[in-house]
Design a protein that fits this description.
By secondary structure, the protein is of the alpha+beta class. It has 2 helices and 13 strands. It has a 4-stranded antiparallel beta sheet with strand order 11-12-7-13. The model has no long low-confidence stretch (mean pLDDT 94).
């Protein structure tokens, strides 16, 4: 039995979880999220807890058991606390500025790069080199942060570029003179 999959998920106060066939919807103070459950698994709500069960020990059922439980738990955390990911802009002349709901990057290109946030995501700038991506959907927050980082990844020689907060960039030695 999956150690993670068999754990019940406690539903905090102010959150409602409803199961409608294969659709699990979670409503909370920050918003609403929905998730479609894979075929062999069953989800039930009992006594302020969500239980994920599997009918058999087939390989596919076992692999989806813990995943489904974690996705539901992530949705519950998202509608109560939300998720955020920090980004740092490192490099001489590299900066980030808020332009309404959009964000403008100066990353050494001949033009500024303007990023519009996807639906459900908010971008906030602190100072001129820190950016926070936040929202209720963990997957959407991570994807938005990865797409912003992809504009100018940190390079290994000087470490310049957009990196996650706390990310360690492995540095290379570069050329050695005679």
């Amino acid at each position: 039995m999956s150690r993670i999959g068999r754990l019940p998920i406690d539903i905090p106060a102010g959150v409602t979880v409803s199961v409608n066939g294969r659709e699990v919807s979670v409503k909370g103070p920050k918003g609403e999220l929905a998730l479609t459950i894979a075929q062999p698994l069953e989800v039930s709500v009992e006594e302020n807890q969500v239980l994920v069960t599997r009918p058999d020990d087939e390989r596919e059922s076992r692999s989806l058991h813990g995943l489904t439980r974690t996705l539901i738990n992530n949705n519950i955390i998202g509608v109560t606390q939300g998720y955020s990911k920090g980004l740092e802009v490192v490099g001489t002349g590299y900066r980030v500025a808020q332009k309404g709901s959009s964000v403008e990057f100066a990353l050494g290109f001949s033009h500024p790069v303007l990023i519009d946030p996807p639906a459900g995501i908010t971008l906030t700038v602190e100072g001129n080199n820190k950016l926070t991506v936040s929202g209720i959907d963990k997957q959407a927050v991570g994807e938005a942060a990865a797409n912003i980082r992809k504009i100018r990844k940190p390079e290994p020689y000087k470490g310049k570029g957009v990196r996650y907060a706390g990310e360690v960039v492995r540095r290379k030695a570069g050329k050695s003179g005679k």
